[in-house]
Specification:
Protein name: Phytoene dehydrogenase-like protein
InterPro entries: FAD/NAD-bd_sf (IPR036188)
Strand order of the largest sheet: 7-6-12-13-14-11-15
Organism: Actinoallomurus bryophytorum
Mean pLDDT: 96
Number of strands: 16
CATH topology of the domain at 5-47 and 60-81 and 213-281 and 413-471: FAD/NAD(P)-binding domain
CATH class of the domain at 5-47 and 60-81 and 213-281 and 413-471: Alpha Beta
CATH superfamily of the domain at 5-47 and 60-81 and 213-281 and 413-471: FAD/NAD(P)-binding domain
Low-confidence stretches: none
Pfam families: NAD_binding_8
Helix content: 25-40%
Length: 472
């Protein structure tokens, strides 16, 4: 029987996950990557001082730990090791206190005081059944779920605007902690279904934690690539695919690229209606990121914040909502929402002596062109006086830099498209098969397909399963 050939274009976590799935099914797989190194958003490098490793995009990986596909693979045999901080996340407030997100839901509830029982009532029913929930959430929404009652429970929380669900809590620490998690959706928090991402991140944290990859996010890429090679697959870097005719003979081709980019590659072979839909695909707010070399780490005012792998900065829930609303209108807020990752807390080997790598990005308008360095540093200084004096080196990545480094990040949108209700339900188009392109044997698997952003590999895995089903 003839061995089937498969091509994957793009070597981000989704592209490599698609390639591994196809290779496991016995296909001969070749991955083409335009950049000189594989990884897409899961790459690391020295961008400030020699020996100091920074994650270039994805840094903390709650959905990777939760991923049914990644957890099924022997990635530890190829060098991947998860590291966990004592605290998943912290949210400092202006009064010098901080709300704390522990992996333990009991510890989180205890730290939230009077809102602790409400926190447990909202998230514990999901966390205890998270193994059943993630398989349905990390996939297309428009399908019959494997666990309908769990999806209903999730949906009853996820469908609310985050500003509305946040009012379930009576005190600011719990409201702010939820708002910071909800802000990962990159949308104004008064919009419908903006509770979805935060609810799932909190659920995943209480069940699986928010880990980092030991040695940097490139370890995820290296493990997937190593597994692929052990299955007979090949990764070819420095090779750009500009049109379908660039591909060698194949039975399946899967593209880890954005919808508009794929429309350019496919040209007239794509059905006109699908081509128009791909070119109209909407992108959302952007990230402006700093990689900093900091002597002695960040001197947080609030106790325990230095033990957190992730820190959300934005003040109160109302202040975060106001900042996200401005970004949604294309206006840069004076005090933007900022996410800080302290990977060295979980993975001490990231530090060089007392010099620590610090990762921080702000939510900014799509395609924002102005330098947001001062705004990000100002938000950290606000909750960590003296921080500025500890900075040894800064490397800034604007929305334009993100797009130049990875064309999938259109306008600096690092989550693969606007998370409107329509975008959550059917991306890149509402269709029976979100991965099929209308060209026989050709599929999409980027984060612009379900379930969206995150280093979980599920977009690639599900696209490959769809391709295999049609091949059979």
């Amino acid at each position: 029987m003839r061995t089937r050939n498969a091509i994957v274009v793009g070597s981000g976590p989704n592209g490599l996950s698609a390639a591994v799935t196809l290779a496991q099914a016995g296909l001969r797989v070749t991955v083409f990557e335009a950049a000189d190194s594989p990884g897409g958003g899961a790459r690391s490098g020295e961008v400030t001082l020699p020996g100091l490793v920074h994650d270039l995009c994805s840094a903390v990986h709650p959905f990777a730990a939760a991923s049914p596909f990644l957890s099924s693979l022997p990635l530890e045999e190829f060098g991947l090791k998860w590291r966990f901080a004592k605290l998943d996340a912290a949210h400092p407030l202006d009064d010098g206190s901080a709300a704390l997100l522990y992996r333990s839901i009991a510890a989180t509830a205890a730290a939230l005081g009077p809102d602790g029982p409400r926190w447990r009532s909202l998230f514990e029913p999901l966390a205890v059944r998270a193994d059943d929930l993630v398989g349905d959430v990390l996939g297309p929404i428009l399908r019959m779920p494997s666990h309908p009652l769990m999806m209903l429970r999730f949906g009853l929380r996820a469908a609310w605007p985050a500003t509305t669900l946040g009012r379930y809590f009576r005190h600011e620490p719990a409201r702010a902690l939820f708002a910071g998690c909800a802000a990962h959706i990159f949308r104004p928090l008064n919009r419908v279904a903006t509770s979805s991402v935060g609810t799932m991140m909190i659920t995943a944290g209480h069940r699986y934690g928010w880990p980092v990859a030991e040695g940097g996010s490139s370890a995820i890429t290296n493990a997937l690539a190593g597994l692929l090679e052990s299955l007979g697959g090949v990764v070819v870097t420095g090779t750009r695919v500009s049109r379908l005719s660039d591909l060698p003979s194949h039975d399946i081709a899967i593209f880890d690229v954005g919808p508009a980019a794929f429309a350019d590659i496919a040209g007239g072979k794509l059905a006109p209606r699908r081509s128009r839909a791909y070119r109209r695909f909407r992108y959302g707010a952007a990230a402006f990121k700093l990689d900093l070399a900091v002597r002695g780490g960040i001197p947080w005012s609030a106790e325990h914040v230095g033990q957190a792998g992730t820190v959300h900065l934005g003040g109160s829930a109302a202040e975060i909502a106001a900042a996200e609303r401005l970004v949604g209108r294309g206006i840069m807020p004076e005090r933007p929402f900022v996410l800080v990752a302290q990977q060295h807390v979980a993975d001490p080997g990231r530090a060089v002596g007392d010099i620590c790598p610090v990762y921080a990005y702000a939510h900014v308008p799509h395609g924002h062109r102005e330098d947001a360095t001062a705004a990000i540093v100002g938000q950290i200084e606000r909750f960590a006086p003296g921080f500025t004096g500890r900075i040894l080196r800064v490397h800034a990545s604007s929305p334009g830099d993100f797009e130049r480094g990875n064309p999938n990040y259109v306008g600096g949108d690092i989550v693969g498209g606007s998370n409107t209700l329509r975008g959550l339900v059917g991306r890149p188009v509402i269709a029976r098969d979100n991965y099929a392109t209308s060209i026989p044997g050709v599929y999409l698997c980027s984060s612009s397909t379900p379930p969206g952003a995150g280093t979980h590999g599920m977009c690639g895995h599900l696209a490959a399963r769809s391709a295999l089903a049609h091949l059979r």
